[in-house]
Amino acid sequence: MAPRWITFIALLWEFQCCVCREVTLPAGPLYRVAGFSLSLPCTVSGYEGPRSQDFEWFLYREDAGTQHIGVVSTRDTGFPYAPFQGRVQAGEVRVERDSGDKARLVIQRLRPDDQGRYECYTPSTDSRFLGNYSSSVVVKVIPDTLLITHSRILSGQPVIEGTELQLTCAASVQSVQHTHVSVTFGMRSSRGAESLGHNLREIIAIDRELRVTPGHSGGYGKRYRDGEIALEKRKGDGGRDLYVLKMSALAPEDSGSYFCEAVQWIRDPDGQWERIAQRTMELGNLTVQPLVDTLTVRSAPDGDVSLQPGAPLSLTCQVSGMGAWNRSALLVQWMRRGPTGGVEVEVARVGPDGVVTWGDDVSRAGGGSMEKEADGRFSLRLFSVHPSDAGLYRCAVSVYAGKRTPGPSSPATITQRSEWVTVSLKTEDVSVSATIDLPRRPLLRRGSTVTLLCNISVETTASSQVEVQWLQKPEEPAKKDVTFSEDSKGRLIATLTYDGLTRIYSNGSDLSVDRVSAASYRLRIFSASEEDQGHYQCQAEVWSQDPRGGWYNTGARAESVTAHLYLYARVADLLLIPLVVGVSSALFVGVLIIATVTCCFMKRLARQRSHIRK
User: Span of the secretion signal (predicted)?
Assistant: First the structure.
């Protein structure tokens, strides 16, 4: 057992060393690659004196025993020995301060004879000598075996927006030490403000732990999640690792100079990963032309198209300037508006999935076709045109660059439209007039059958039929004379179509429509009621037959003036009124007599009771 005074001295020394100088360096050995930089941080703590401490570095080579070589010092410019003097003067070997008590030795390009034990010494500024004033670490310089090659250099020829890009780099390292390799694809942009010193972009990388990480700028994260950018690692010839960058749809902002960077990593004894070698391979320049500059949409035939009713119409939409047709989806639409302008409506479309959809004219789906004839060529065919088909036609093409199957909410990259094609029809002159007649003999009463006649006159040289519509506007008490204005049309109650079909739309009323003669059409209201009163009008539309036997609306139409229907009460109803009034009066008089007698009796009874109490 040690004497107590020895234990006391040991405790006193331990207490003093809690505040003594200590110099620390990273744990070793450290492996670094020849030709690349070395950075050794040295920290001093527990010192007295000024905040800014001086540092001196020595090198003990493996074959020199205890002999040291002065490398560099913060307080003495003449400190470096001959092997380092020129390198220190050139700035290749230097000390960089992180703070007053922390500095690092930087050797910009390691040489094989830089291998050895490096000592960091801090000259004393303390009032007494306590602690350690230096620390050392072994640095091993290993050969540079990092290789990087490419399989193809960009030619510099412009490509069209939406084109696919594939670049390949091969990276390998031959080292006795356990090291990892990371590979990064990047570009230096040449567009806009990014060229002002902030043009370096990291596109995507495989890190030292084989994790794929997209770049943080330029929207590469979203494009990676959408599957538009990918990076794969493969095995190539001779066992080399191949790294393949795929960009499914180039955008104009992808223009620039491309490079591939390989980095060799090693894990130091303290557990930290250190970059020990790096190489960059230039892959060439790329220019991406925007689709807005290259895409053209034309419709054929040019100019005007004049047809007879029933003739076929054929229009073609030609798309060019797309680049690779199998890389981008297209939405092609044929649009139409009236001969004098107006709202543009969709006739038909073929979607990115190849499905053809027709517009509001549902019947046209059986009388036309739209198809893709070849890459960039789409046709619209109407087998039998009618006057309603006349107007201005053009095709609209929406391009989804680089997307073969865009989602329903995916925005189009660009939409281009062709010039208008005017389609006109040579039709026969048609004139039509309509008059309405409401016979009032015998007297129209409620419950009787009401008959209205619509007399139609048509003048045309072509075979024709008439479609008649009956409209009613119920009578309002304050308005006896009513006309059907554009903003106050009557309610459609019945139709007799051009091909003889009857359609009844009335709710509650018993109606029928028929054709009495070649020019006369009849509406009958059975058991007419008060709700059937109002203003009636008939409208006529002329339909003609084309050479193929199909019927079409010529657009000729006429409206009659209105006829006012008023229904008188029936005789039975008139007799019922006095009866109802008489019975009501008799009931009223009887109730009044009974109430009077009862009231008088109650008063007399009340007086008798009062007399008895007295």
Answer: 1-20
